[in-house]
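lol so apparently i was supposed to do this last week
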Amino acid sequence: MSVDAAEGLMTEHDHPDHPRFDFVVVANRLPVDRVVDGDGNASWRTSPGGLVTALEPVMRETEGAWIGWPGGTVNDIEPFDYNGTWIEPMPLSAQEVEEYYEGFSNDTLWPLYHDVIAPPSYHREWWDSYRTVNQRFAERAAQLAAHGATVWVHDYQLQLVPGILREMRPDVTIGFFNHIPFPAYGIYSQLPWRTQIIRGLLGADVIGFQRAADAGNFQRAVRRLLSYEASGTTITVPTDEDGKVTSGSRNTKRPSGPTRTVVARHYPISIDALAYERLAREPRVQERAAQIRSELGNPRTIMLGVDRLDYTKGIRHRLKAYGELLAEGRLQIEDVSLIQVASPSRERVETYKQLRDEIELTVGRINGDFGTIGHSAISYLHHGYPREEMVALFLAADIVLVTALRDGMNLVAKEYAAVRYDNDGVLVLSEFAGAADELKRALLVNPHDIEGLKDTIMTAVEMPRAERSRRMRAMRKRVMEHDVAVWSRSFLRELSPYQLSRGGTDLLAVVEARPGAADHA
Ligand code: G6P
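anyway here it is w/ 6-O-phosphono-alpha-D-glucopyranose bound
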């Protein structure tokens, strides 16, 4: 942390005594969840999310700050230190939750970026709210960033932050990582504010995507909308004299004035694979896995689906295929059990309400048609579970079904591979999930093709042990060698030249200097 307020950079929003940081993360969610006990006392605990684990070493080494929404509409939470990370809660009003979070983020951008699986809604008031909230996040980042600091902005909720921040603080290095897909231009171009969003993103020095195809789609959007030169992974952005993005007067392919170089490429996110494997080796977790199998009556095949209850996940397609296999007698109810964990998500958004109704109706029908008194076809669990229970479920599952219709990465696929140190288990993986680019030895499927999905599930059920083992070994190798530490390092490596050219701290060097860093090299 640095407390020397960056001279000459004060704005009307600054508190002169505000601490300053060399590393600032800006994400819609904080890395901690607020828990209120029975007596109404609130405390904080680490969120289970992958991003928190991913950034933990960098946060620890740099004593960085994290700006995010604490959830809900409580607006009097003071910033605080949490295990060496400065937590800066960004309150949202009830109207902003409705318009910025549920509205523009999750009912406009989310469906649009996932190839319009559900129809996106376009409302001008939602866009206004998105702009206002992004402005506030950017202002807070400008207050907290030390001179020459690095600010890493995350995900589709905050795409305008890099552009606004660049205007306020040309001295900082800005990274942006998009955790969800970036759609093809033919889809993206529906967005009434398509140019503003692209300009917002181009405020960053490095823009990261999950798949090479996402980065390609973004570059095409830049070329189509702004005519900037984009070749390989770099985009040349015309700027004014102090490096700010110009508003359009020099949108030519070969600008004659000053320019900035922006890198746009893919950095597939991952998990803390070793931590998953270690947990899987714990005797108590293995006992729990055995208990799960026995509670289900030790069927020959246990299949597992683990998803946020979201229409992008293809849960309906999976249930349809499973129901048909039972109806056709290709699967026998006494031999098989499907566990579907569907964790509650965005429950006030209409599309999510409808999805829940449809899924629960389908589960009820399948259980009614095929279940017996002692055995139901599907164990449907509308809860989130702690990591340990998830690991036990992965150990218990012979087959994991990831049938997403579109997914930025899908970490469930990687978690399953990390857990199965016994080199057993079959992963059925949608080719529309980012993980399919890396886990090529999964059984890849097109989830829209129900017959193909059924055949693939049967292939998984019947796969001989030797083949299961060969495939799982290859997937595990990939996941163990490309874990989340590799991900965050490769992103920081891309930021290094920008940090050095601005006289800022090379964060990769800071992280690599810590003891034990070589373990992850
Ligand atoms: C996806 C998004 C994240 C988001 C998460 C949970 O993984 O990429 O940005 O935080 O879903 O969704 P929620 O709306 O509850 O934050």
